[in-house]
Amino acid sequence: MKEKLVVIGAGMASGRLLEHLFEIAPDRFEVTLFNAEPRGNYNRLMLSPVLSGEKTYEQIVTHDDDWYAAHAVDCRFGESIVKIDRSNRIVFSNHGGVPYNKLVIATGSAPFIIPVAGKELPGVVTYRDLEDTNAMIEAGVAGQNAVVIGGGLLGLEAAAGMAARGAKVTVIHLMGHLMERQLDPSAGYLLQRDLEKRGITVHCKGATKAILGKERVEAVLLDDGTIYPADLVCMAVGIRPETRIATDARLEVNRGIVVDDAMRTSDPNIFSLGECVEHDSQLFGLVAPLYDQAKILAKTLLGEEAVFRPVQTATKLKVTGCDLFSAGDFADAPDREDIVFRDPGRGQYKRIVLKDDRIIGVVMYGDTADGNWFYGLMKDQTDVSEMRDTLIFGPAFQGGQKLDPMAAVAALPPEAEICGCNGVCKGKIVDAVLGGATTLDLVRAQTKASSSCGTCTGLVEQVMKATLGDGFVMAKPQGMCKCTDHSHEDVRRLIKAMGLKSIPAVQQELGWTSVGGCYSCRPALNYYLLAEWPLEYKDDRQSRFVNERNHANIQKDGTYSVVPRMWGGVTTPAELRAIADAAEKYNVPMVKVTGGQRIDLLGVRKEDLPQMWADLNEAGLVSGHAYSKGLRTVKTCVGAQFCRFGTQDSTGLGIRLEKLLWGSWTPHKVKLGISGCPRNCAEATCKDVGVICVDSGYQISVAGAAGMELKETEHLASTASEDEAVEIITAFVQLYREHARYLDRPYKWVAKAGLDWVKAQVVDDLENRKALVERFEISQSVYRTDPWAEHAAPDERAKWAPLADLTLEAAE
Amino acid sequence: MTLFIDIGALEDIPVQGARVVKTVEGCVAIFRTSDDRIFALEDRCPHKGGPLSEGIVHGDRVTCPLHNWVFDMNSGEAQGADKGMVRTFAAKVEAGRVFLDAALLKRRSAA
Ligand SMILES: Cc1cc2nc3c(=O)[nH]c(=O)nc-3n(C[C@H](O)[C@H](O)[C@H](O)COP(=O)(O)OP(=O)(O)OC[C@H]3O[C@@H](n4cnc5c(N)ncnc54)[C@H](O)[C@@H]3O)c2cc1C
Ligand code: FES
């Protein structure tokens, strides 16, 4: 019979323990897993990227339903254990008891709440789980006032995340500088300055006296009388081990649940690991030692000898754009020496603390690339007297010449630590790679390297590259172009989350490696920015491809083509006359009818464009945007007005849609087709959006293609009301604008996003549909104008001609 | 020594953009970078004749609008796997005015 193993707490420590157990002895235990949170194990460290918008919750789940099912774990999520009956070996939740042979307590820790008046008011949260995170996201999105009490690691990640979401954030910190346990005052100052640049107010030496409010929080009052208004207060002043059930069960508990070297509590059948334990008078607050505990406890449970020995761990702050690294001891003392490097202009600060020619502490701010190297020297207690003079400049200086990062990684010894969270050394990664793990995902799965806080991903890839040589192609889909490692999706998310509002700001903050980007990222960034900030960002013409910059299509001989808009494919004799006149006046070599039901004038010289546009404007014609990643044409058939089969006014609907959507920029071009009956003369079923009118109303389908690829549209919604049809289509276009990768046509985007998701957003969720339409209208308040009219203005025209004509001067 | 001729105001050239000057040697594209440096290149891509003046300017590079060949504007050399050269001409900015190598004007007069 299998042994019954009951685990209390489905957190990061117990999750790792279960992985080890199932790997080594899959059939040994029958596991029941209780968790107070209504979900399984996720990567708690990554709550900060979720808060700031860089990741979603789905992306940080460690064990999903399938995983638990595959290992036959009886999951009791949302069920707290309230009592342990040691004599009968039964644990109790409010739903009843479960017997155990062996019990593991992995309850983690609970945030510390400072005992001030008002601490129970609604709107006061801590920072520990998804619920807290979501509360803070909401405050941010609503642009509310948020006060964070506590300027340590957690508090600052909370503050930066909420600020990125749009909250007005104040951090109140009791001590003289931020993160005083990891940073010295100088580095703390640089950090404070960087946070203030993001609009975060920092109040050091501030003691909270009370939280004010009637129904819910309204403000925070400090000892010195300062009052900060607050719609939300996040308390992040520290944690204490969650030991209540252990204390009640009379296990030995000091500050934490006392365990021996084998992770056994004072009861031989009860074990404990994680932030709830105390080992050798020490508590734990970072995951690295917890993972070691998991390894040890797995062995203990399987009857093997194992001894837990904590190692030192380094700290990194996970706030994009604030790089800091801290390890060891850096308090001043007479027997210690400091080496300090400052570059205030670039916001860099490095400090190494030496004792007896050994490094005992490292603090770095700004440029932390060498952190792991110093940390290695510190852990190994290397004698650094030989390299003292250049030590602060890092490993690049030690060889005399600057090593490229690959060479540096190649030179690391096998025991060099690469992933701090999981304690994975280079040798282990190399072994995994040689054993066939040739992708990052495989290495992650086999070694755990880079699977927790993620800051080591680059290094892991470099080790893989160094091992595989050219055989390893660094994960390609990553960077949106050669200038950055961020993917399109990441960049979009970060533009929003970090409030980046110009191309230089994006390139600066996200670490573009090129000057000024390239022809591939510039148009994409320009689009992402104008889609995100329609009112604040000004379209950058110089970041557009020639056709969009010149509002005409360049031809292979350098001339342009001009296509005026014909709403819904309907025109008038006067318009046709104006077009004919323009064609003659500017010697247009070819006049052609397009597939989108309008007329193309081909072969126009650039300097003639503004005047020609002015002539066309006079007859009421505007740009047809035949050149844009935007709304192109709305093709219609005749419809009920004339056609004997027509069921609805398809032409009228087409004109209405075109007048609504024109001028909008989209990730790629958008073409519509509206057919008056299922005979489908407007070929609506291969367009980006197609409408087929039927007796009962309108059938809307999307995501067709009729180019290099051929694809029929898929049904999105049917409605009896023309107004609703228009609304759904508008919402669809806006959703596409907000989510698609630049240069993905709707059919590609829908394939990635999933039609069901799209439906849920624009068809089923009425409120969301309305919000999408509203955001589209805000953007259109800027872009629903004729660009031709703008450039045809008399004082603009000179810009389209040569700057100078030296052939004339020469002739004079 | 190069003789220069005043061809216009710096502000008439868009930042990260270009304007064309017609010369007896054909069209010359005058580029302005984001840090207000000026480059003068033949306005003709050696690949298929694309007008470089209509390309996207990034740093001291320009990308041809037709097929994305990238050129270093300092040397006129095609970058990456593509092989080719565009002629460059001396140009400079002084007191907000742009000057171009006067040889582009003279040759015809001499002839
Ligand atoms: C926002 C944030 C950022 C962090 N960043 C980092 C970082 O960058 N680097 C780092 O090393 N560490 C970081 N940490 C710390 C790290 O997350 C913790 O050290 C780690 O999660 C602790 O693991 P654990 O298994 O002990 O506890 P937890 O992961 O907290 O799991 C304990 C679980 O037990 C459940 N539980 C408690 N009591 C009961 C009960 N009576 N019955 C049933 N279930 C119960 C809880 O609901 C919880 O789900 C961060 C923490 C947070 C909150
Ligand atoms: S003509 Fe320049 S890249 Fe083709």
TrEMBL record, chain A:
Residue ranges of domain BFD-like [2Fe-2S]-binding in the record: 418-465, 480-529
Matches recorded under NCBIfam families: nitri_red_nirB
Keywords, ordered alphabetically: 2Fe-2S, 4Fe-4S, FAD, Flavoprotein, Heme, Iron, Iron-sulfur, Metal-binding, Nitrate assimilation, Oxidoreductase
UniProt-recorded name of the protein: Nitrite reductase large subunit
Start and end residues of each FAD/NAD(P)-binding domain: 4-277
GO biological process, one term: nitrate assimilation
Nitrite/sulphite reductase 4Fe-4S domain: residues covered: 629-768
UniProt-annotated binding residues for [4Fe-4S] cluster: C637, C643, C677, C681
Coiled coil residues, start to end: none
Keyword 4Fe-4S: yes
The family this protein is said to belong to: Belongs to the nitrite and sulfite reductase 4Fe-4S domain family.
SUPFAM superfamilies named in the record: FAD/NAD(P)-binding domain, Nitrite and sulphite reductase 4Fe-4S domain-like, Nitrite/Sulfite reductase N-terminal domain-like
The organism's taxonomic lineage, starting at the top: Bacteria, Pseudomonadati, Pseudomonadota, Alphaproteobacteria, Rhodobacterales
Cofactors: FAD; [4Fe-4S] cluster; siroheme; [2Fe-2S] cluster
Manner of cofactor binding, per the entry note: Binds 1 [4Fe-4S] cluster per subunit. Binds 1 siroheme per subunit.
NADH-rubredoxin oxidoreductase C-terminal domain ranges (all copies): 314-381
Gene assigned in the entry: nirB
Pathway(s) where this gene product acts: Nitrogen metabolism; nitrate reduction (assimilation)
Binding, siroheme: C681
Domain Nitrite/Sulfite reductase ferredoxin-like per the UniProt entry, residue ranges: 555-619
Single Gene Ontology MF annotation: 2 iron, 2 sulfur cluster binding
TrEMBL record, chain B:
One GO biological process term: nitrate assimilation
Pfam family, one: Rieske
Gene Ontology MF terms in the entry: 2 iron, 2 sulfur cluster binding; metal ion binding; nitrite reductase [NAD(P)H] activity
Keywords: 2Fe-2S, Iron, Iron-sulfur, Metal-binding, Nitrate assimilation, Oxidoreductase
Superkingdom per UniProt: Bacteria
Limits of the Rieske domain: 5-100
PANTHER family tied to this protein: 3-PHENYLPROPIONATE_CINNAMIC ACID DIOXYGENASE FERREDOXIN SUBUNIT, FERREDOXIN-RELATED
Descriptive protein name: tRNA-(Guanine-N1)-methyltransferase
Species the sequence originates in: Gemmobacter aquaticus
